Amino acid sequence: MAFRCAILAASVLALGSAAAPAAERPNILLILSDDQGFADYSFLGHPHIRTPHIDRLAREGRTFRRGHVPSSLCCPSLASIITGLYAHQHLITSNDPPLPAGKTGRAAEADATFQKQRQQMIDFIDRVPTIPRMLGDTGYVSFQSGKWWEGNFRRGGFTKGMTHGDVSRGGRHGDEGLKIGRETMQPVLDFIDDSARDAKPFFVWYAPMLPHSPHNPPERLLERNRAKAPTLEVAKYWAMCEWFDETIGTLLKHLDEKRLTDNTLVVYLCDNGWIQDPNADRYAPRSKRSPYEGGLRTPIIVRWPGHIKPQMRDDLATSLDLAPTILKAAGLNPTKEMPGINLLDDAAVAARTTLTGEIFEHNAVEIGKPASSLHYRWIIRGDWKLIVPAPRMKESSTELFNLRNDPDEQRNLAAAEAARVGELQKALDGWWTPE
User: Fold this and answer.
1) What percent of the chain has pLDDT over 70?
2) Is 406 domain-assigned?
3) Are 143 and 389 in contact (CB under 8 A)?
4) Residue 333 belongs to what domain range?
5) Within a 10 A sphere around the Cβ of 35, how many other Cβ atoms?
6) Tell me, what's the pLDDT at 9?
7) Cα–Cα distance between 385 and 422 in angstroms, integer?
8) What is the mean pLDDT of residues 83-96?
9) How many CA atoms are closer than 13 Å to the CA of 174, on its beta-carbon side?
């Protein structure tokens, strides 16, 4: 309780001086892709996938082509986005609790101990400030839709939302919220309209389960991609990316029609990467859940007409930067615990040389003890990337890659670059040494 009070007190102090009047603060629309490869956009050169609406955001906004998430698994990644903290800080390291002995799937979900442990994981969101909670303290209204692992939407500080979080009714990672994008867009559109009518600045969390599996796109999109893709499974995935893009088009058109575009900060990124298995509805190795670029890298886009000069950038960026960026745009200060930077601060962006991150088990080993579930730590400095396995990963070894010369991370240079490994290892340990 004392720790929670200290963290929440930091949230209050972070508000600083009185926030700007509502009319001067932007609405905020956070768009989250779910399981999409970092190059699977037409604006980044994919030869077949069409993403005209994300392309528009990239053209009209500040686009970071070397964006990353610290963890390549959806629950800890989303928790880091909403809190601006690493998983080892907010303690939500995994998707699910430890599996009960001899149980998986529905049997595990129904297990009383498993359910109790899930609630222990959800409780961590109460200990730390979140973007909607901090914005709400200054008069913002907020809406949750799509993927959400932290119980009822109110647990994250949202004023309205779709996810009930009741495990007895299928609550796990979004429940009713997962209808957004796939079945309807109306709840988000209605919320935007209500907020505009009430002259309230809004924050929208739009995180549809797209292009996430199951890959069941509309037939018209599948048919367009079927002849171009090497396999049916790849065609389905490509079509899912296009379906997701169409839903973004619906949102952007709505902002245009309601004359809200110029006063809305739109932020785009993906929760983790994806490489499509050509023969099954699943991810291939070295993508989701891995420490490689296929799992960690994502474009990050921020658009605010009249406030952000459109440009393509190759500076390093991380999803941990979104909380400071959004809060500063709203006239607030991030908490001192948030390690990210304001992506609209040119000096801070130019000064950054390093990114770090961490990969954990899908099912936590010991809840509340990040080191127990750790697989890898990683660090990028300039063109170099070091991946260090945790002691429990006995079959893995330290890997060093030059991302400029070897973007697919095929040539491990650790043995040939021992001094560089030592330098990066020291920096990694200075960031976080698991205990």
Assistant:
1) 95
2) no
3) no
4) 24-100+107-343
5) 23
6) 45
7) 12
8) 98
9) 21
**What is residue 276's DSSP assignment?**
B
For 271-324, write each residue's pLDDT tens digit: 999 999 999 999 999 999 999 999 999 999 999 999 999 999 999 999 999 999
- 259-271 burial, b at 16+ Cβ within 10 Å, e below that, comes to ebbebbbbbbbbb
282/73 Cα distance (integer angstroms)? 14
CA–CA gap between residue 350 and residue 400 (Å, rounded): 24
In a domain, 424, yes or no: no
Q: Supply the pLDDT for residue 19.
A: 55
DSSP for residue 38: T
- Residue 241 has phi, psi (to 5 degrees) of -60, -40
Cα–Cα distances in angstroms (integers) from residue 405 to residues 66, 291, 293, 299, 420, in the given order: 15, 18, 14, 20, 16
- Angle (CA) 241 147 287, round 5°: 55
**Residue 340 scores a pLDDT above 70:** yes
Q: Which residues contact 140 (CB under 8 A, 6 or more apart)?
A: 25, 28, 132, 200, 201, 202, 203, 330
- What's the CATH code of the domain at 33? 3.40.720.10
pLDDT of res. 294? 98
Side chain identity, residue 358: E
Q: Which two tokens stand for residue 358?
A: 């961490």
Per-residue model confidence as pLDDT tens digits over 375-423: 999 999 999 999 999 999 999 999 999 999 999 999 999 999 999 999 9
Report the distance separating Cα 31 and Cα 245, nearest Å: 11
Asked if residues 265 and 352 have their Cβ atoms less than 8 Å apart, the reply is no
Burial per residue of 389-422, b for 16 or more beta-carbon CB atoms within 10 angstroms, e otherwise:
bbeeeeeeeebbbbbeeeeebeeebbeebeebbe
Task: Classify residue 426: in a domain, yes or no.
Answer: no
Q: Crossing angle for the helix pair 52-60 and 232-257, nearest 10 degrees?
A: 50
Which residues make beta-bridge pairs with 33?
270
Domain count along the chain: 1
Report yes or no on 415 lying in a domain. Answer: no
Contacts of 180 (CB under 8 A, 6+ apart): 145, 146, 162, 187, 188, 206, 207, 208
Q: Residue 149: which of 265, 327, 37, 271 has the closest Cα? A: 271
Token pair belonging to 245: 């893009």
